[in-house]
Design brief:
The complex is a heterodimer of chains A (about 130) and B (about 150).
Chain A: H1 2-11, H2 15-20, E1 32-36, E2 40-46, E3 56-60, E4 63-68, E5 77-81, E6 88-93, E7 104-108, E8 111-117
Chain B: H1 2-21, E1 46-50, E2 54-60, E3 69-74, E4 77-84, E5 93-97, E6 102-109, E7 120-124, E8 127-133
Antiparallel strand pairs in B: 1-2, 2-8, 3-4, 4-6, 7-8
Classes of the chains: A mainly beta (about 130), B mainly beta (about 150).
Chain lengths: ~130, ~150
């Protein structure tokens, strides 16, 4: 338990480190857009060539991991090449206000959209002030 | 044919230079982002391959509605063009903006003649695959040698 806690503390603010330890394997960091709205965060990531069935999204100790293997190949003999296929991998620190159990994912035309709703307690709320007369 | 050779050679050289310095920094670089405003590359990125009877072209086109994608063929030049719409929900506060949007068009010269009537294109998971059968004239032919 103690060791577990220590590791978690070490990882704080060092999302990059975890990523770097995986370096021997070749992977691509997908580009993302992250938008915040009142209801939550919206994350859009470009994963061209990934497959809906094999995309792996997990939330562990407040870290969101997107891992998508790519199993595409070109037939025949390559004659000209500008990009290579590699699995996509990227991690994000999740703010505490996100309700981790109700994250929704959608994959369309090579773009992954994640909806990360804020927990009820973290949403802005309007409080009526009743003035006692 | 000359243009095919020299410009692609230059392109290859630049890419190899980029590749050589990849991973040298502290953070890993991003995958080349489609329509990235910070990149000088031409979009979409293309890969080409061939076998005996066909020429294949793959283009990275994430996030395009298939109806906004146009493909045209003139002699030995393929043109891929279209437009990527910005994400619908951009009203909120933008924390991170790495994606690119807007119009694009790219033409590429093919190394051999193809049969435009039997050419097919298929868009799946953000990748466009164009399959072009080589024209009969471009296929290798065996010539019998007569012994006098």
């Amino acid at each position: 338990m103690a060791t577990n806690g220590l590791t978690a503390a070490n990882q704080e603010g060092k999302g990059q480190d975890r990523e770097e330890t995986r370096a021997p394997e070749r992977f691509l960091r997908p580009a993302v857009n992250i938008t915040e709205e009142e209801s939550g965060l919206l994350l859009a990531a470009e994963l061209p060539g990934a497959n809906k069935q094999t995309i792996d999204i997990r939330v562990e100790k407040g870290i969101l991991t997107i891992n998508a293997p790519v199993s595409r190949e070109m037939p025949g003999r390559p004659i000209y090449s500008e990009f290579g296929w590699a699995p996509y991998y990227r991690q994000f620190q999740m703010p505490d206000v996100i309700d981790q159990s109700s994250v929704k994912a959608e994959f369309k035309n090579g773009v992954l959209t994640l909806r990360l709703p804020k927990a009820e307690a973290a949403k802005p709320r309007r409080i009526e002030v009743s003035v006692a007369r | 044919m000359t243009s095919w050779g020299i410009f692609n050679e230059l392109d290859n050289l630049r890419r190899e230079m980029d590749e050589a310095f990849r991973g040298a920094g502290v953070a890993r670089p991003l995958a080349t982002t489609f329509l990235s405003p910070t990149s000088t590359r031409r979009f979409p990125l293309l890969n080409m391959s061939e076998d005996e009877g066909h020429l294949y072209l793959d283009a990275l086109l994430p996030g395009i509605e298939p109806e906004h994608l146009q493909l045209s063929l003139l002699h030995q030049t393929v043109t891929v063009s279209g437009e990527r719409d910005p994400l619908a929900e951009t009203s909120g506060l933008l924390h991170r903006s790495e994606l690119g949007f807007g119009k694009f068009s790219r033409s590429v010269d093919l190394p051999t003649e193809i049969d435009p009537d039997r050419t097919s294109a298929d868009y799946q998971d953000g990748v466009l695959r164009i399959t072009m059968p080589k024209s009969e004239r471009a296929k290798p032919r065996k010539i019998e040698i007569q012994i006098a």
